[in-house]
Amino acid sequence: MSDHQLVMLLVDLVLITVAARLLGRVAEMLGQPAVIGEIAAGIVAGPVVLGSTISTAIFPLDVQHYLAAFANVGIALFMFQAGLEIDRNSFSGARRLVTSVSIAAYAAPFVLGIVLGATLLARHAQGHSTRFAFFLGAALAVTAFPVLARILAERGLLRSKVGQIGLAAAAVNDVLAWTVLCVLVAATSANSAQGWRLIAVAPFLVAIVSMRRLLPRLSRSATPSALIAVGISGTLICGAATAWMGLHLIFGAFLFGLVFPREHSALLLEHTRLVSALFLPAFFVTAGLQVSLSGLDRGSALELGVIIAAAVLGKFGGTYGAARLCGSPPREAGMLASLMNTRGLTELVILVAGLSLGLIGPEMYSLLVIAALVTTAMTAPLLRLFAGRARVRSPGGDARTVEPALNVGT
Fold first, then answer.
1. Domain count, the chain
2. How does pLDDT run across 390-408, given as a tens digit for each residue?
3. What is the extent of the structural domain holding 205?
4. CATH number of the domain where residue 381 is located
5. Rounded to the nearest 10 degrees, what angle do helices 95-119 and 298-325 cross at?
6. What PANTHER family does the record point to (predicted)?
7. I need a surface site. Which of 113, 119, 215, 239 has the fewest CB within 10 A?
8. pLDDT 10s digits, 137-156
9. In this predicted structure, what is the pLDDT of residue 290?
10. pLDDT confidence of 252, banded at 50, 70, 90?
């Protein structure tokens, strides 16, 4: 790296960090998740707003490779946090409702996405048409667990029935999403020159299962600093392993977070969030630089509307219907459906992975990024609409009033 590249890299990191924080704060002031402003900051830095000439001058091509490296570290830590935040026992007390909601919330948009993908093959299919359609279904079916958890915390609903069912259903939804995406990526990689590396998947999964038994012993004897080092280094190692297999680093990092001991999760989340805060802005800009409207036409606007409609109808309708069939009151079912419609940063991670692996093209990527922003922005207004002065039940059966004020973080 030359001195000029180093200077530009540091300047770019400062610019995008400040822009992400500022626009994230603006989003929060508008009652929206901060992630909307942070993603918007990346799009603003790209050719859509600044134009290709100015954008390339600020973020030179020879510096973008280094930004991508920072972005990958940030995403690996984010996926570790997403896995670590999932409570593996959270749905044991309401198994029927959680199972019904999580399956319906995933299956409905997934099927609609596949059908929609089949109709868009002629304009957007990248290489393998079946994988394109299935990826579109997977992209529409995702729920952003970290964003949903923050919404519930800000709303004071973490201990309510809606909150606990929502968290558990989103956790199951996330596992389904990453499993399906992993199969799609594996099918894509199997046909590549490095397809033989997939033979390492089985021993890797055995190692992950073994970690679930070994890590608790380590956590009981390790110092906090040693535990943080194990968490970060293990995340990067597991991410590197799945990246080497051709499965993308997000899967290894997520699995490591999923099996990591929960006893010190608060400590790990606090410190890894501090580290990822330095790296994630690079992901926003690398994702935003790939958004382009130049290849879109009038038909693309119609496609965007249909994509948003399919995403909302599938996720909201599937969740609401399942909750009502399981006996939830209309308001609680509506609140649950509103929460499950959140996509946020998790969606962006999936889209970037799909683009880099050739499952979707630049035009479909741009449309799906816009759709992710729109559907995430719908969460707060819909939650206000259904919450109002709703009486929501805690797991013990008592009811309390939910105030209409809403302040949503990342």
1. 1
2. 444 444 444 444 444 333 3
3. 69-273+302-401
4. 1.20.1530.20
5. 160
6. CATION/H + ANTIPORTER, K(+)_H(+) ANTIPORTER 1
7. 119
8. 988 998 887 777 777 776 67
9. 81
10. confident
Side chain identity at residue 163, one-letter code = G
* Predicted TM-score (pTM) of this structure: 0.76
pLDDT 10s digits, 262-288:
777 788 888 888 887 788 888 888 888
